[in-house]
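Example 9 (inverse folding). The structure is encoded as follows.
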């Protein structure tokens, strides 16, 4: 009986407690805006300049140089163009130096278009299977809403690259070059999602009508035929086998005849798998030394989900510095839009880069936990950590990203971020587990705590 009475009681409280803005309150609020000389000047400046960010640039911030004590082998800047494939570019950038050494070449890149094709195709199948699995639920069920909100997208994390590579392999960039729609993905993705939403609706209708699962899955294949057609028209068809000719550093022309899967096995190190490389996260909203898994966050039915070990920042930094010293750059993701000046020639990320509080005369103070829980901050971009600078006691003071926004962005394509920025806006790193301490490695063996597909760390 108490549970039955609780909801009406809460509704009554909400109704009684909720208040409109009274004329007296509005008067007090309006009178708080005192238009003195400095306020009038700020208003004149702001109403005529659309870039609040430019006006808030803090010219009193401590200078940050681009010199680093420890650096890893990097092989040039790539450009994801107008696409959300940062996770794919970052994963491939980590592996490019290995491929270049393997084939003795001065430059090399993987085909992002090839991997993108299969990523989107597999995501489409996963979406349709999710719709079938939840067909008995209402359209306003939170999981169903999550699936239909974004059937497929460019976004992802490291495990998605691993899933696609293991199943379909990889090819050199020359074998399946970029197209206008791999470089500019929004229109194609919009059409894919429209077809998938229509298909998902039809599958739910079939299930509601009592159609047998074989008939439902036969219709799913028909939908996937359309998805394949759209992808093939916009991206080209991925090869089942290929011939790659290249000139090595000795001037010799070499020829490789193989399949994408065999090429993947040749180029990718044997230890490049989730048993050796793990994602570690700094999420202060949850207990540390626990493993969390995002339900259904993968791109293929048989692929692995995104899971991570939650660790304190100081533990993450010790492991990351070990990796840098061993010449092993790391996949990382962060909230790149916060306190970052990525303009050409700048490339600085520091907590004091912009002073919005002084400009606006208001407090914007929140710690990392509050920013995450209120959705003010989340991981928005993946890059490769390639360098670290330390003080006289070998304690990190700043780090460096190799970005995938082209050489015209930041410092010739690189971004320098301070250790303070690391604390506030870096979220996750993929690292070889051998660089973790014993307590962290022991924690990896713990049971995965499953988080829903709409979790705020998604």
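The amino acid assigned to each position is listed next.
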């Amino acid at each position: 009986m108490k549970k039955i009475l609780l909801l009406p009681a809460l509704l009554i409280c909400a109704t009684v407690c909720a208040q409109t803005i009274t004329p007296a309150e509005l008067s007090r609020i309006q009178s708080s805006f005192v238009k003195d000389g400095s306020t009038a000047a700020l208003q004149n400046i702001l109403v005529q300049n659309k870039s609040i960010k430019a006006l808030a640039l803090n010219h009193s911030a401590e200078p940050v140089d681009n010199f680093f004590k420890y650096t890893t082998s990097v092989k040039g800047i790539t450009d994801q163009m107008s696409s959300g494939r940062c996770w794919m570019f970052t994963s491939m950038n980590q592996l490019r130096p290995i491929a270049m050494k393997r084939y003795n070449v001065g430059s090399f890149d993987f085909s992002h278009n090839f991997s993108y094709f299969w990523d989107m195709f597999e995501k489409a199948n996963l979406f349709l299977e999710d719709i079938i699995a939840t067909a008995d639920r209402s359209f306003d069920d939170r999981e169903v809403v999550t699936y239909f909100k974004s059937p497929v997208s460019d976004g992802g994390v490291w495990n998605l690259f691993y899933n696609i590579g293991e199943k379909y392999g990889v090819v050199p960039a020359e074998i399946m070059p970029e197209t206008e729609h791999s470089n500019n993905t929004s229109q194609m993705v919009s059409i894919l999602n429209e077809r998938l939403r229509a298909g998902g609706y039809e599958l739910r209708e079939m299930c509601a009508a009592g159609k047998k699962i074989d008939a439902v899955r036969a219709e799913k294949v028909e939908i996937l035929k359309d998805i394949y057609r759209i992808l093939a028209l916009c991206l080209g068809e991925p090869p089942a086998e290929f011939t790659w000719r290249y000139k090595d550093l000795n001037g010799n022309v070499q020829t490789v005849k193989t399949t994408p899967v065999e090429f993947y096995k040749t180029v990718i190190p044997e230890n490049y798998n989730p048993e050796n490389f793990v994602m570690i996260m700094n999420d202060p909203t949850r207990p540390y030394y626990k493993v969390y898994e995002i339900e259904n966050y993968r791109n293929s039915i048989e692929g692995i989900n995104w899971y991570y070990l939650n660790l304190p920042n100081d533990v993450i930094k010790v492991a990351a510095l070990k990796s840098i010293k061993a010449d092993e750059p790391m996949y990382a993701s962060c909230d790149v839009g916060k306190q970052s000046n990525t303009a050409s020639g700048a490339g600085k990320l520091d907590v004091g880069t912009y002073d919005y509080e002084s400009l606006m005369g208001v407090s914007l103070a929140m710690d990392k936990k509050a920013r995450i829980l209120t959705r003010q901050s989340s991981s928005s971009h993946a890059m490769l950590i390639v360098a670290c600078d330390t003080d006289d006691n070998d304690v990190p003071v700043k780090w460096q990203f190799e970005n995938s926004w082209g050489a015209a962005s930041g410092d010739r394509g690189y971004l320098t971020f301070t250790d303070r920025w690391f604390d506030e806006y870096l979220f996750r790193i993929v690292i070889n587990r051998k660089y973790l301490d014993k307590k962290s490695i022991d924690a990896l063996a713990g049971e995965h705590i499953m988080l829903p597909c709409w979790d705020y760390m998604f």
